[in-house]
Amino acid sequence: MDTKDKLLKNNSKTQLINIGRQHGVTGMSKKNGGYKNKNEIADLIIQQVKQEVKQEVKQHVKKEVKQEVKQEVKKEVKQEVNNKVINNVNHNTGDTKLTFIDLFCGVGGFHQALTDLGCKCVLACDIDKKCCEVYENNYGIKPIKDIKHIDEKNMVDFDILCGGFPCQPFSNGGNKKSFDDNRGLLFDEIMRIAKHKKPKFLFLENVKHILKVSDGKVFEYIKKRINDIGYKLQIFKMSPHNYGIPQQRERIFFVCVRNDIYEKFNDNDDADDADGLTSKIKLCVENKNLTMEDLVEKNVDSKYNIEPTLKNVLDAWDELIKQFDVGEKISPTILINDYFKNYTDEEYNQLASWRKDYMTKNKPLLKKYDKIIKPWYKKHKELLTKREIYGKLEWQTGVIKKNDSIYNYFIQMRQSGIRVKKNKYFPTLVAMVQTPIYGKYKRYITPRECARLQSFPDTFKLHENDRVVYKQMGNSVNVFNTYTVIKSTFKHYDIC
Length: 496
What we know:
Elements: H1 3-10, H2 13-22, H3 38-83, E1 99-103, H4 109-116, E2 120-125, H5 129-139, E3 160-163, H6 186-197, E4 201-207, H7 217-228, E5 231-238, E6 251-258, H8 259-265, H9 292-295, H10 308-321, E7 334-335, H11 336-339, H12 345-349, H13 353-368, H14 370-384, E8 392-396, E9 410-414, E10 417-421, E11 437-438, E12 443-444, H15 447-453, H16 466-475, H17 479-492
Parallel strand pairs: 1-2, 1-3, 3-4, 8-10
Antiparallel strand pairs: 4-6, 5-6, 7-8, 9-10, 9-11, 11-12
Helix pairs in contact: 1-3, 2-3, 4-17, 10-14
C-alpha cells in the first residue's frame, strides 16, 4: 500500500484537512461551498510533504558539504602554515617579506644579498661612521651606532639576524687575542638579542681562523652559546675563488636555525656530524667563471699607477727573477739585505728566530747565484735598503717559469715584504690598506674593482675617499658567497 492509500484509508476528510493545515498546504480553498474532495487533499498533502523532505535533505546536504569543505580548508591552511612556518606576515601592511636586522653591517654585504632574495631590512647597526654614511646612501637606512645601545625588549620584531661580527680578535691580520679583546665579546651581544627575540635564522660570518684560535676554545664557546639559546648550527667554509670569483678569501659562515623550524623540516633521529654540528643544508651554487679581466676597469686614472720608487724596486727584483733558472725554487722569503750584512755574534743571537731561520734557508739559493746577485745588489743597494720591506721578496707563485716576471702576478706590499701571488685570483682584500697591485698593468686595483671582487653591483655607491673604500671592502662579506649560503638555506626550508 502506497502513502496516498494509507492516508485515504486511515483519515477522514476533516482529518486530512487538519493534516494539510499542519504542513501549511495551500490550494485547499472552498469549492461549491466546501473543500476539495478527499483524494485531491491527499495529493496536496503528499506534494507539500515531498517539498518539505526535499528542503530538509537539501539543507542536510549543504550542512554536510559545508562541514566537509571547512575541514578540508582547515587541513590545507594547517599544512600551509607548517610548510611555511618561516614566512612572516605583517598584518598592518600586508607585507609578506621576511624581515632582517643587519648587525655590524659595514657597507651592507649581508643587506645586498638578503634584499636580492626579497627580504626587507628593519634595522642596521655599525659603529663606523663612514660605513654608516655609505649604508644610508645606498639603502636609505641610517644604522644605529652601537649594538650595546639596542634594547632587545623594545626593538622591532624580525625573522633573520645577520652579521659579520668583528674578526680582528681572530684574524691573521689582527693579534688573535680572541675573547681577551673586547671586540670578541661583541658576539655575546648577538646572543643577547637572539635569545630574547628568537628570530627564525641567524646568519653570521667570520675568518677561518676562528675555528682554531685559543686551541679551539673560542669555537666551542660559540657552538655552546648558539645551542643554549635554542638553535641548530651548521657551518660552511667558503672562498669566492672556489666559485669562479678571482679573490681568495676563506671565511666561515654560521647558519643557525631555530630548533622548532629545524625539527619540522629534518628527521630528528638523524645524527650530527663528527664536530657535533648539523649538516642538512646543501649548497646550491653556480660557478661564476670570472677572471680578473672580466672585472678590470678600462681607461683607469693614472693616480692608480704604482709610484716611481716602488716601480723601481719592483723593476730591480724583476731583473733578478729573470736571471734565475727555469724550475728554480726561490721560497721562502728572501731577505737580501741580511745576506750582505755582517752581524756580530751578539747581534745575530738577538735576531728573531724566524729571521734566522729564513737567513739559513736563503743561503743555498743565494750562494748558487752569488756571481749574479753580488753585482745586482751593488747596483740596487741604495734602493733596496731605503725601506726594510723593499729588501724582502716573498715569492708565492711556485718555481720559476719560462719568461717569468714579477709583473706576471698580483703583488702586495706587506710588513713581511713584497708578496708575489699567483695570477689566477687576487689575495684577500684586507681592512688594512695593503691594496693589491695588478702586475700586468703596473697599477693598484681600483676601488670599483675591489667592490666587484666583493660581488657588489656597479650601481653600489662607493665612498668618495679611495682609502676608505679599500678599508671598507676589506672588511665586507663577499655578497655572492653570502647570497649562496642564505639562498641554499631558504631552499632547504621551502622559502624559495
